[in-house]
Amino acid sequence: xxxxxxxxxxxxxxxxxxxxxxxxxxxxxxxxxxxxxxxxxxxxxxxxxxxxxxxxxxxxxxxxxxxxxxxxxxxxxxxxxxxxxxxxxxxxxxxxxxxxxxxxxxxxxxxxxxxxxxxxxxxxxxxxxxxxxxxxxxxxxxxxxxxxxxxxxxxxxxxxxxxxxxxxxxxxxxxxxxxxxxxxxxxxxxxxxxxxxxxxxxxxxxxxxxxxxxxxxxxxxxxxxxxxxxxxxxxxxxxxxxxxxxxxxxxxxxxxxxxxxxxxxxxxxxxxxxxxxxxxxxxxxxxxxxxxxxxxxxxxxxxxxxxxxxxxxxxxxxxxxxxxxxxxxxxxxxxxxxxxxxxxxxxxxxxxx
Amino acid sequence: xxxxxxxxxxxxxxxxxxxxxxxxxxxxxxxxxxxxxxxxxxxxxxxxxxxxxxxxxxxxxxxxxxxxxxxxxxxxxxxxxxxxxxxxxxxxxxxxxxxxxxxxxxxxxxxxxxxxxxxxxxxxxxxxxxxxxxxxxxxxxxxxxxxxxxxxxxxxxxxxxxxxxxxxxxxxxxxxxxxxxxxxxxxxxxxxxxxxxxxxxxxxxxxxxxxxxxxxxxxxxxxxxxxxxxxxxxxxxxxxxxxxxxxxxxxxxxxxxxxxxxxxxxxxxxxxxxxxxxxxxxxxxxxxxxxxxxxxxxxxxxxxxxxxxxxxxxxxxxxxxxxxxxxxxxxxxxxxxxxxxxxxxxxxxxxxxxxxxxxxxxxxxxxxxxxxxxxxxxxxxxxxxxxxxxxxxxxxxxxxxxxxxxxxxxxxxxxxxxxxxxxxxxxxxxxxxxxxxxxxxxxxxxxxxxxxxxxxxxxxxxxxxxxxxxxxxxxxxxxxxxxxxxxxxxxxxxxxxxxxxxxxxxxxxxxxxxxxxxxxxxxxxxxxxxxxxxxxxxxxxxxxxxxxxxxxxxxxxxxxxxxxxxxxxxxxxxxxxxxxxxxxxxxxxxxxxxxxxxxxxxxxxxxxxxxxxxxxxxxxxxxxxxxxxxxxxxxxxxxxxxxxxxxxxxxxxxxxxxxxxxxxxxxxxxxxxxxxxxxxxxxxx
Lengths: 353, 685
Description:
heterodimer; B: alpha+beta; Neuraminidase; five-stranded antiparallel sheet; 11 helices; 28% strand
């Protein structure tokens, strides 16, 4: 192949798979070299082509050949690292990125190494690499975004918000960063702030079912259960299999005392995912409100069968048994819930003596 | 055609609106003279009974009903029937007659509106009741009758209370206690022991002691009955308690002690109605003894009473002079000689210008239940509760315990179990009889807990769970520990009648003394939360047994079953002194140990030949040499304390065993606590 000019092939990699909406950001740009002066360059270009065709094993062997011929071929190390990354071979990937960095300090290489370290749960290593990335490129939105994830996981929401904000500043249409900053605000009980950010995320990309769902939950948390129903419905319309949104909409209907509507939604969640213990438990709660105590017991039992350590399903089942005059059964359930750490159950068992 | 229909409709309407009042006059019944005669006769017979007074009104009803069947459109007769039903247990039957009376004759005697108001009130139609009462209020004002005006003011305010209370019903189950307790005769005024194992109540059944018939009610005289909770949780067939508890006169029970070993009786035969106390010896109830002149006034009526859980106080109802209303609640304290002291009015937080009845102190020692016509009663007597604050000796504002336990009728004689879960009270059965019912309090609705999660992070597939903390529903009344069990001989296992002394360790004061039952060995004590209790079980020629219960103020209700075996005074026998306390890691005796040490000194003085070893034991925390030394020093501290009081030093030896003789595991906090102990062993007698 005779290439006379530089061609950029955009290789899109999915960073983490959300399962709901594919990541749309272009992360990596691999380069086909137009000079094929050396044999090393030829192998390198063959590697890039193989990578583009998702022939990863072949790509690795081509890049390896290139490296054999030129031990200081930085881009070949970087691209072989990238290929290993695509194969989830992160230890090998990191080794190649190390070498590439030793030959040239590059923000993108630090970033990719950070992602590999993150994949290997090397939290400190990943954070250090993302930090180095933004030192070399203060506008590296993804590096801020990825670093924020660790702060979020540590429940250091303030720090997460700082990084999400930097990510947004670097990339004004960074919908994911808006969504995640909203979530950090929500965790800090700043529901108004969360609602505003979720709305911005949706303005940028209104096809993200999870963002509509999250907006609904922030509204519900803010006391607007009625308003949340609309958002959950939008999420469901975008993803008809979104059982989490059904479960949430059912809960919002429960809040507004529409117990029949709630039961319909929980049933739908169960239909989509029959192993979803939350929906079984929640449907039990709605049945309880309609005084269907037998139904409550059946649904709680199902939730318990799925998750034998589900404290609140025991607590709820005990409440139904009490009203069916089965004090012994109620006490057994409350005792179990108390053993599993429910303080409410501990208060209930006072009557069991 | 249409015009014709309209005309007919108007005709019907006007007939309905202006139904005629038909007087019982011959001229109105020319075509049925015999029927008229019979109806008049029925009215006369009814009137004869009616003249005897309200207690007899119910017996007049059948005659008036017959007359009413003949002429249903007489306002005065309808009013009379309504009045009679209101005086019977079938109060709910009064309303249609009274409604008809005022409809037939809107300018009927305004007393008819009072009766109608009462009937609406009982039927929970509060707005209509207020309107009817107000109509009668005008007449009362014109007559300047202060008694009636006060009564109407009370009734109208009760209607307003009722409107509020009924909107927020409490969650309860109400169950009839069943045919082993209830019969086709009247049963009422149940009392229970703290653990709900004994139920005592009053009934009017055939074959009552003395066999008399109450001429006022045409019913049997009252006797007292007892039923016991069986192993399967059901009540045993209720038995007449027989003589000497029941006499030829009316005998009605009142308060039962927490352990079911003593109870209070109301006897109508002496004075204006007095209170007596009965004690259980083994399985025999003793002769009722009067509570004395400080409680029973010469010219006053004392209808009900109860004990405080420690048995040192009696709360009773009396109409003695100097009260704030008709009947008030009083207290009397037991003096050192065991006599009941001067009665004190419990005060205006509880007592109202109206009447209080049916007093019951919960086993927690601070929550008083009583019935009152005042406060925010919704009609008649309602049941209230008020909590005593021991620090400043005040009572909380009485709280209406709520609908449907309280009704617009009289709600009295209510008792509640130690756990706060069950109440026992009297209500009207479907057959129109007074029966005993159990109320199960469910408390506020227990919130159901929902769980949710969201995809909070756009680039992470796993959803994040929402942290949900289920709200805790706290049962406020049940802050006490019920300690119960059987006391027996360690070797022979024979049950024993022993003395149980409850000591407030911090105040170093004996709070109460009880005895276990001589036939069953059973005991029960109620320990309200908030104290460090030392419990000593004593019997002559036995080593005393000690227990410690340190119950924080916030502790929830619990029942602890503890069977206690007393050991003989014999060489080699040993006991643990559970109420000896040391400062942390020191051999300094804490002041809370005083009562236990005094018991030990008394035993040494009572049995002069006794020689003992006091052994110190530790848990396994810390080095063994440190523990050895600590145990030695602690044992010696006890020996030194005892010998300082004059007990010959040669009679006591101290020994430190360190961590060498554990009696429980050292792996748990509870086990380690048991291992840290002071033991006492008999060396010689």
